[in-house]
Every structure is written in structure tokens, then in C-alpha cells.
Records
---
Amino acid sequence: MVDHSDLVILVWNGYYDLGAGVWQLTLPGGKLTDPTPDGVRRQAEIELREETGYRAGRLEKLLNFYSHPGYIAHQVHLLVAYDLEWEPLDMEDGEEIRVHTFTLDEALAATKIDYRCDPEAALALWLYFSRTMNK
């Protein structure tokens, strides 16, 4: 997520219930029920508002991929959210999330610290950085 001043907004997500027992920087996200492009966009808008409190004026596809194709059919849809406006929704029950703002350099630096950043978030940050450098 990128706000008006080119700051990156990520969430700290507690993965205690999955056995990892850690907090990691990650992207807003959730389970997808409608895999069509419109369904992906609608779900992204909801997750963004629930987990960060922001509504995107514009969503742009970054990349779609299978995160672990060798043993699970887990599709990931990376979108960049621009032109953010404060318009929160209530979080789902049991979600434990903290929102943090970084410069792009700070966010990229976090990807180089062991266990600090979710690998999908790290990939998204480096792809976004690459895209901005090629403009």
C-alpha cells in the first residue's frame, strides 16, 4: 500500500495460532471466495479496509502466482493500493493486527532481517521497488 506521500503501509500480524509464535510484517490479505478479477479486487478492498482502515482510490495488479505449488494450490494476488483515504471497517473476530508506516527504503531494509517480513510481502516490496526504478 502506498499513500499520498509515497509511504508504504504494512501490517504486523501475529502468527501465534499457526504455531510460528511470531509477529511478521505482511500485507493485508485474506481468503478469496471469488477468483475472478472483479472478485479479487472486491476482496482486496475489503481486506485493506478491515486490516488497515484505508480505502484505496486505485488498485493496480503487481503479480499473481502460486506461493507453494509443490504441495498446495495457494494462489497469491499482489495488488498495489494507491490514493488511500481513511475509511475503516471492523476487523474479523480474533484478528490481531498492528498497522505500521515505512518509507520504501525502511520497508526494503526490513526484508533483509531474519524472520521480520513475510516472504510474499518481501517479494511485493522488491517488485514494487523494481517497477518504480524502471519508470
Note: The domain at 8-133 is CATH 3.90.79.10 (Nucleoside Triphosphate Pyrophosphohydrolase).
---
Amino acid sequence: MEEEHPNLQIERSMYIQLHWILLLVRIVLAIVMIYYGWPKIRDLTSNANDFAQMGFKPGILWGTLIAVVEFFGGVAIFVGLYAELAAALFAFQMIVGTFWKLKIGKPFTDYSYDIQLFALCLVVMSQGAGAYALAAFPGFIFLRWDVAALSLVAASLFAVLSKPQFNSSQQTTPRMSR
């Protein structure tokens, strides 16, 4: 950076290195995942009912899968154990959640958080887990156009094929991701 601005004499050691920023991103993402995953893991039956009500059947399969991705994926991201893989799975979940919320007519404020979490996942997938990661997974393999297109098609199909069962007065999102 000193070469780019020769008149600006700032020591290189004063800049925050990328691996520290990635560590912060990893910790924030992990805390969010663990926070929302823990209630699902604690009560898989209730979570399964929520997913069945949202139209993801069988609810026990999809609810348990999401609970595992959120909670154990969050733990994996926190310690940096194949964080890139866990981020890819969570990113897919966030895209499905976004499409599902669009399908049922939720406002932007209800799915903007999912988009932000998706963006954090892309950072971890593309740049790695940062400092103090235990083991890396080649997350870049998910960052190909064919994989991205297939993921978007699959996520939209999940959302489109779901058949939510809400009462007319009940248009809430039961514990999907947030």
C-alpha cells in the first residue's frame, strides 16, 4: 500500500490484515447460526411441525436438516473446521428462505437479513475462514457459474414447490432462519 501512495508514509503494520477481518466475519456468522439453530436442535419435533406448516414436507427431514446445518454448521464455522462447506450449505438455505418469503409475499424487510447472511457466506466461501481456522475446505468449488445456476434453480424449486399451510390471519415465518 505504501507503493500506491508514496507521499503517504503509513506503516504496513497499521493496516488490519485480511485474515483478521475474515475471523470476525466467521465469528459473527457462526454466532447467528448457532443462535437460530439451537432452538431447532433443542425441539426437533416442533421444528418439524414448523417446516411442515411452511410446506417443506416431510417436515421432520427438512426441519432436522436445517437444524443441523444451522447449529452444527455454526459450530464448525466458529472453530474454522470446514467453514467454507458449512457456509455453502447455509448460503443455500438463505437463498431458499429468500425465495420462499418472496413466494408468500413477504416484504423486503423480512428477507433482507437472509440476503445479508448469504453475502457473509459468500465471503467465507471465497476468501476462507481467516485466522485460527482448524481445517479448510476448498470453498471456491462452489463459486462456479454452473454450480451457482444449479443452486438458484434448486432453491427456487424448493420454494415454489412448497405448499405453506397458513390460517388466513397467520402470515408469519415460523423460525425458518431468523
Note: The first helix runs from residue 18 to 42.
